[in-house]
């Protein structure tokens, strides 16, 4: 870009005159365009905080100003006239990609950029219909993003803006919002790398990642040591195990470079070998390659044996969740829909809410707890509640529903018998045999289960 005006940003520390000390000054010379300088001169009067944030940024150091990011063409759908300039209020990944093409490409192909699709999918009936649209704006779209609508004057319409959800649909056809993590207008790398930045979305009953992390060994170490690493965290290219080594943050494991040869990426799913968001956990595409990248990341701090052992047990945990609870629960729901016990209206029966909590809340908490070494979330706040929900909510509620629908004449005797057969088949599986066993038989199962587990992880 052409820089036509020099603006001096001077920080000076002057010693007291009484000491006779000479004035000390460090001068930061920044080149900005005349258009950006006009923005700065005006905004100093109206939104001084934004100007100050920008002055502290790497963008200011590089001479990238307001106009370079916000400029627009007359033909752009969100172009608006603004004090003699044609600009857009929205800075999209396409705009950021002019200077950051690699990061933009990686981000655009990531899970994050696809987040907005959920908001308009059939899966979001809870947000758009059952709870209500204002909640969809503040809740679902607040993290996932949504479509920004533009008025005739080129300005974003209320109800679609402000909108910094990670998978935002932008007027220029791009998806995503870089500002979801890199806050305007300071764009601090240290702030973007702070776990709390991820935690603003990755929290709560369905994916308490920040809660799990903060109470994990990793999180506690980060809280204690991160102030010692602040200068390092502002650098663009840093490697775990080399440039910082006391503790990892979210970006370390999911995006970061390491001393073991892993290159950083804005594709947050590049190391995820399991998709643990859905009702049943599934392997991701190219999961072996992703697993090796994650292992190499862990080995920036841990030994290979330590890492291999962890992933063996993690895989067994996911397998146990799938086979013992998730697949049988899905079989129950499939039976109910296929036999007309449940109608096509979502969430109008208690059974549907029980199932939702089993996989979407308790099930996710359990799996995320195991993935991040959060013992309490893995057990008490996770798989313990999955088990309770399965044995004492889902199955009993299914029994009640079958009985009620039969009395109402909505299902026949054959459906009742088919349900009894399915339930008996599920509870006869070895994972569930404890429910009709004596204490002595259960003690025997403990020994058998321990033997089976050790054989599985050491084969």
From TrEMBL:
The keyword Signal applies. Gene3D superfamilies: Hydroxylamine Oxidoreductase, Chain A, domain 1, Hydroxylamine Oxidoreductase, Chain A, domain 2. Residues 1-25 form the signal peptide. Residues 96-148 form the Cytochrome c-552/4 domain. Keywords: Signal. It comes from the Bacteria. InterPro entries: Cyt_c-552/4, Multihaem_cyt_sf, Multiheme_Cytochr_ET. This is Cytochrome c554 and c-prime. The lineage of its organism: Bacteria, Pseudomonadati, Aquificota, Aquificia, Desulfurobacteriales.
